[in-house]
Amino acid sequence: MTDATFIKAESLPVRSDGLPLASAAPSGGREPHAVGERGGLVAWLTSDRPMSRRQAGLGRAYQGWRNFARNRLALVGLFIVLALVLVAIFADQLAPYSAYVGDLRTTRLLPPSWAHWMGTDDQGRDILSRLIHGSRITLFVVVLVAVLAAPIGLLVGTVAGYAGGLVDAALMRVTDIFLAFPRLILALALVAALGPGIENAVIAIAITSWPPYARLARAETLTIRQTDYIAAVQLLGASPWRIVLRHIMPLCLSSVIVRVTLDMAGIILTAAGLGFLGLGAQPPMPEWGAMIANGRLYVLDQWWVAAAPGAAIFIISLAFNLLGDGLRDALDPKGSK
Q1: How much is the pTM?
Q2: Of 6, 164, 186, 290, which has the most beta carbons under 10 Å away?
Q3: Which domains occur in the chain, in start order?
Q4: Residue 104 to residue 123: CA distance in whole angstroms
């Protein structure tokens, strides 16, 4: 071997184990894991040594999606929930008839047919159109309750878990009072005091939904506050509120999101129960629980009037449960493989 051969070998880039990279480089001189080549983006996302926060964040998101995608039923739940969102957005374009106006002379209590796929109700209104418009009410209740209840429970739980002592005892005793009552019974009492209506129903459901999130956040906080990470932040002089808001809450957020998703089915059933009893959405709003209450008078002969909204509640509740199981697998680092 000539001296030129040694010079050429020494000029090649060397790996951490001392071997040159010439054999791994493809023709053209580009690096084998450059973004844009086949498999390069995946290798960049799954790198054990990310070079930036952006790469680390995208890598965690990609790994979470892979964990989520392993659960096929969770993908089915995600598809149904996304379909619900699209139906609610484009309800005016998708509904074949008016959700509020019917013809008592010609279209009253018609069975399912090509003209009315899910039949008509006692007012001659198309049930499919009312279900499509009712998806907006269901989505409105779910989103608003989650926005109101989850932050309250997260704040109460993290403050109680970090502060301890009298603050913890006082906040947890208030939480225990709310947990002592069944959710539907307490929501009924609150709606009866506030008055019937969809807005008051949302407030009542939100007030009765935050205690489980507070309990979960407190349990997470009791574990997190003993870590070296929080001790280091305390030594740097961070205030208790900064520690809770900037360092503890983000770590508890994933568990709360999973619990909120799993509770969506219960929220939908509670809203439907209030509508069934006449304390939720008021006629002629196409709320699914109120539609079931309207169809209970015809359940033996005209079964489709109550069966259609009941099936819609069942499918959406099942979809949120499946989605929650998938998010638990994706966001729980202990369950990832």
Answers
A1: 0.80
A2: 290
A3: 24-69 (no CATH), 73-331 (1.10.3720.10)
A4: 6
